[in-house]
Amino acid sequence: MIVDAHLDIAWNAIADGRGFLGPPAPRYLISRPALSAAGVGLVCATIYTAPALAKRAMRTRFVYENAHEAHIMGVAEVNYYRSCELRLIRDARELASYVRGWRRGQIAAVLLMEGADPIETPSQLGAWTDMGVRIIGPAWSRTRYSGGTRAPGGLTELGVQLLKAMRRKRVILDISHMADQAVADSFEMWRGPIMSSHSNARAIVPGDRQITDATAAEVARRGGILGISFYPNHLRKSGVTTLDDVVRHALHLARAAGGPEHVGLGTDLDGGIDSRYGPIHDLRELRELPRKLRRHFSARQAEGIMGANWIDFLGRALPAPTESRRASSR
Ligand SMILES: [Zn+2]
Known about the structure:
There is one protein chain. The chain is of the alpha/beta class. It has one domain (2-328): TIM Barrel, CATH 3.20.20.140. 40% of the residues lie in helices and 16% in strands. The chain has helices spanning 9-16, 32-38, 67-83, 92-101, 125-131, 157-168, 180-189, 213-221, 232-235, 243-257, 289-293, 299-317, 321-328; strands at 2-7, 40-48, 50-51, 63-64, 87-88, 108-114, 133-137, 146-148, 151-155, 172-174, 194-196, 225-228, 263-265. Strands 1, 2, 5, 6, 7, 10, 11, 12 and 13 form a nine-stranded parallel beta sheet that branches. Strands 3-4 form a two-stranded parallel ribbon. The longest helix is centred in the last third of the chain and has 19 residues, at 299-317. Zinc ion (ZN) binds next to loops.
């Protein structure tokens, strides 16, 4: 089973009219039939909301000016996933039974909130875990909780409260998009499961959107995992991207993390990529990746990177069924 830890499915459907249930829109690769055909069985489906100042927001009016608007948009995205009857994985037992019974063609999702502004106050986190949110990345650009991409800064006071509430509710921390200071602040206070859903190696592509080798090593030391993004600007500084770029980041991050069991995919293939410029032009090309990974990794390690590593991590990091009930009660 291939696992993709970062897809902005609901945002694309609501903000851009790229529905999930039919074939992919032109120059776009993601949809339920496309994922099924490619052998993807589990995704982290995001609740991504764009602040009104974001550049990508120029193309859409689906943007927020304040936390309340972000909240409404986030709920709309959860409802979109419901309308698609996308099966949500809420705890470790549900994950295990889904993986055991999985047949090609089936898709399930773990809900990941990218940018935490839809959570109006940390005390409302329970409403989101009730809706199925199991992973939160506090930042995108800067949010009320954290410094973010090209917006330096640490965790805010509200951010510290949010992380405490996340720990109580057994939510996983996603450091992708967090500014360096916010990552450092998180390492200092966070004792729960940690991951980076879609960030590549800064040693290959400079810039604060990518993670340093030291961050990769620290996430790995805590049992976490690093998802490789297929976003062209995250794969290389310039020029045409191919799956070889994906392999290059996998190899680098595996070395930095101390082993390939800490590496997976978080393609972000629908994060605003025009598929003409991405490393694949049809999702079925994902199947060529294991063969390329085999140049550097064993068959088992390549299988791990394609999906098994995420399944292992989520099996450890998702709440147990009893904890999940706790996560879901206010
Ligand atoms: Zn992102």
